[in-house]
Amino acid sequence: MTVRTRFAPSPTGYMHIGGMRTALFNWLWARRNGGRFILRIDDTDQQRNMDEALGPILDAFRWLGLDWDEGPEVGGDFGPYFQSQRRDLHNAALQQLLNSKAAYRDFEPSAETQAQREAAEREKRVYISSRISLDLSDADVVAKLNAGEPHVVRLKVPRERTVKIVDLVRGSVEWDCGLMVDPVIARGDGSPLYNFASVVDDAQLEITHVIRAEEHLSNTPVQVLLFEALGHSLPEFAHIPFVAAPGGKKKLSKRDIAAYRKSPAFQKLFQLGDEVLSGIGIDPFDDALSPVMVAYYREVGFLPAGVLNALARLGWSLDDETEHMSLQTLQEHFSLDRVVKASAGLDPDKLMSFQAHWMSQLSTADKVAGCLPMLQKAGLIPTQAFWILSDTDSEQVELPKNFPGTAVPYMPDTDIQTRVRQVVELAGDRLRVFGDILGLSEFFKATEDLVYDEKEFQKRVVRPDDAVPLLRELRQTFAEQDAFEADSLHAKVEAFVSARELKFGQIAPTLRLAITGKTKGADLFPTLELLGREECLRRMDRAIGIANSQRV
RNA sequence: GGCCCCAUCGUCUAGUUAGGCCUAGGACACUGGAUUUUCAUUCCAGUAACGGGGGUUCAAAUCCCCCUGGGGUCACCA
Fold first, then answer.
1. By CB distance 3.0 to 4.6 Å, which of A90, A232, A376, A486 could disulfide with A203?
2. CA of A178: how far to CAs of A12, A40, A135, A161, A182, in Å?
């Protein structure tokens, strides 16, 4: 039998990183078994704007390279794939249950039901449904129906039974039906509720493996009963642990963003994200984008491979040592029996480590392709002139939002093209995410736009009495230097230093600050070479000027 | 509170199904050292865990029981 798995998101306008992990496991299981992965959209009746609500979810799948065999856009033999369009199926199933008396119409006022529930709770009794409507004759029911009396449809739970499943992750789990409330499966108007619609759809879609987060475990007995009442065989269940917040055991949730900001475990990620996002004109404090969402990682410049690797290792391992796995490797080796039972906290540090690894595997050309959009969004390099329409495939390159048609990057200005590549090469491992390129803005800014680290500038350039004179002398040396390239610059500065019986460390930070505005960064002399003599001299002049004005 | 799930280094995990190969392995993080013109990388080293108590057994991280702790869920949401 063909393995069929599904992921059934509600169109919420964003893709949750934990949900993505569930989707990934479903996808992997299908691929591993040569099966089909289905995307079903669990929308409720009137979704306001489907494009807006579903778009980001599909984008997340596409970005990570998880394709779906059936679902929105691709269709399939079991459609429609939007739950709201499957009402006929739900209606038929509902009628079937009503006819077979497996379900009944409950006319008890909801206030009354609620009161009973509360009374039971007060008396520390288990609450079970009163089933008072079961005393109604068929004629009574018809009469009430005709009179339009409000009601719901409930499944009649076989109270003498126990429901038992053998979960592929958790093993055997069972529930005593005598403790269960008759669940509402549809409203009076026939609109189905989640548990019911989900079962009907899973059955009709011939889903063989229901792989979902463990918070759904408590829904399972009801669903099992529904499968049985409908005469369907059960799918296999695999309840995988949910993704917990860093440093905690609680479910990672969009609502808790404010708290995560203060969490030490999240600190570095937020710092990186804030810098990159504000650099490209996105307000990081506007919760439209947060580390709970897949889109966040794309915007900051993570690689699909990094995110995928981190998600796969959350609650699953290949063996006792393999850490780095491509999607290809994952789909060859994924297994449900190696899924861990306990919830797993997302570890931003480890995610970054995976990311850095996959970034290091990328060619310079690919890194450049990833950095270009960043630099453009940040306004550090021109946008418009960069793009020409083309029929050629440009899958490596992320297009600006709303860009019309297909495009490949085209550099009318070879200086800029070369510059980006050189900076990327110079940055080396410092480029962990594409957004890191924004931290090297000194290579893309005009002399007068360069920003100095205020504190360090004071400490290294303004305050020391010899800093400005030394910079002057160095400037002179540079001006007279024959070849302005890294090695000879290095030799020149070494000679300069030893001639004055200084230590290298006494001049290098000052020079770096004058040239780049920072104390950290890529190798100094290649940096000088890349910037070129004219620019270096201008920057030194400017630094000297500013220092002098501040010393007065 | 009811029901259900879970429990190995700070974190992610291996080991638990078939008890001995475990003086508990790997990775991330952290600390120290080496390399280095800063930062980063790389390399080496180190700190660090079987929640507690009872059993069973020659032998228990692994099996059983209890306790404790953590979590999920209890809608005419999905």
1. A232
2. 36, 33, 20, 7, 10
Residue A149: other Cβ atoms inside 10 A: 13
Output the pTM of the full model. Answer: 0.92
Distance, in Å, from the CA atom of A403 to the CA atom of A380, rounded to the nearest integer, reads 19
Q: Within a 10 A sphere around the Cβ of A33, how many other Cβ atoms?
A: 17
Which segments within A363-510 are labelled E, that is strand? 387-389, 407-409
Nearest to A56 by CA among A24, A15, A22: A15
Distances (CA, A) of A330 to A317, A326, A333, A337, A341: 10, 6, 5, 14, 19
Between CA A125 and C1' B60 the distance (Å) reads 41
Residue located via tokens 């949910």: A242
Interior CA angle at A451 toward A450 and A452, to 5°?
A: 120
Half-sphere exposure of A117 (CA within 13 A, CB side): 11
Distance CA A433, CA A415 (A): 24
State the amino acid at position A106 in one-letter form: D
Contact of A298 with A63, CB cutoff 8 Å: yes
pLDDT of A400 above 50 = no
Closest CA to A75 of A105, A38, A103, A126: A38
Residue A218, CB, strand B, below 7 Å: yes
Is the minimum distance from the CB of A243 to strand B below 7 Å?
no
- Token look-up 């998600």 returns A311
What's the CA–C1' distance between A444 and B50, in Å? 54
* Mean pLDDT lowest among A228-237, A311-320, A327-336, A392-401: A392-401
The nucleotide whose C1' lies nearest the CA of A487 is B37
Distance between CA A34 and CA A463 in Å, rounded? 69
Q: State the ipTM, two decimals.
A: 0.96
Residue A511 CB burial class (10 angstroms; 0-12, 13-18, ≥19): buried
* Strand B contacted by A319 CB (< 7 A): yes
Which residue's entry shows tokens 């969009």? A254
Does residue A187 surpass a pLDDT of 90?
Answer: yes
CB atoms inside a 10 Å sphere around CB A385: 12
DSSP classification of residue A428: G
Determine contact, residues A362/A402, Cβ cutoff 8 Å.
no
3-class DSSP assignment, residue A172: strand
Query: DSSP letter at A329?
Result: H
Q: Is the distance between the Cβ of A264 and the closest atom of strand B smaller than 7 Å?
A: no
- From first CA to last CA, the distance across chain A in angstroms is 84
User: Is A13 near strand B, with its CB below 7 A from some atom of it?
Assistant: no
Structural contact between residues A436 and A355, judged by C-beta atoms closer than 8 angstroms: no
d(CA A303, CA A131): 55
pLDDT of residue A46: 63
Chain B: bases < 7 Å from a protein Cβ = 1-8, 10-15, 25-29, 37-42, 70-78
| Residue located via tokens 């440093």 | A247
